[in-house]
Amino acid sequence: MADLQELVSFLDKELRTSEIKDYSGAMNGLQLENNGTVNRVISAVDASLAVIEEAAQEGGGLLLVHHGMFWQGAQHITGPYFRKIKAAIEGNLAIYSSHLPLDVHPELGNNVRLARAIGLTDIRPILEKNGFAMGVVGGWSEGRAALAKAVENVLERSPYQCPGGSSEIRQVAVMTGGAGSEVAEIARLGIDTFVTGEGPHWSYIEAEERCLNVFYAGHYATETFGVRALARLLGEKFGLESSFIKRPGGL
Fold it and tell me: Is residue 251 predicted with pLDDT exceeding 90?
């Protein structure tokens, strides 16, 4: 067993939760408390109804998510939203959410973990904003086809490609989730290839015009790394069992 507030204090400090600016609906930090004790740590990408119901089954857990309970802003506590809260409270489940603080963490973050997993070298931060780097970039020397295969092997899905640049790749930028709109910034840095989760329609056109390769690898698929690493760290530090609930949406 571990004290909830001790876990929250550790997470807030490690993730710089109060320092990193984010979308207001992210509401990073502890979103729902339980009775104050935690016997296990569960991680998932989204605080969806299905995830919360599964996480709450055994009682007394702490659920770590990347997309929290208030993503759509204030809403009536009815329907599925009521069922989420009811399931969590009845299952004595605490919920902690970390969006941008987890994306950009230099060791636990989605960006750096994905970059390492696909085999990039000499990884460094890029696109600093409000005191933190929005993405990372690393070296690659095996060509565009090999990178596509590496991404597919890691994420267990084929990335959708915009082959706007050369098939000979030197540098690969990584920004997970919905960062496809950053194509112009990536190209401006002289980087030839960009791996992200998803992007708007116009990002493909702009990438072509700027001679940039883009791999749209899936929003969910690119953002499982951070919560899993965070849950493992918390479990090891506080002697708790940790697990991951897989619930992909396919996008």
Answer: no
Residue among 200, 161, 165, 162 nearest 180 (CA): 200
User: What pLDDT, in 10s, does the model give residues 112-134?
Assistant: 999 999 999 999 999 998 889 99
Print the domain residue range for 120.
110-219
Which pTM was predicted? 0.95
Q: DSSP letter string over 82-150? A: HHHHHHHHHTT-EEEE-SHHHHT-TTT-HHHHHHHHTT-EEEEEEEEETTEEEEEEEE--S-HHHHHHH
Euclidean distance between CA atoms 249 and 54, whole angstroms: 16
End-to-end CA distance of the chain: 37
Q: What's the one-letter identity of residue 18?
A: S
Domains in the chain, number: 2
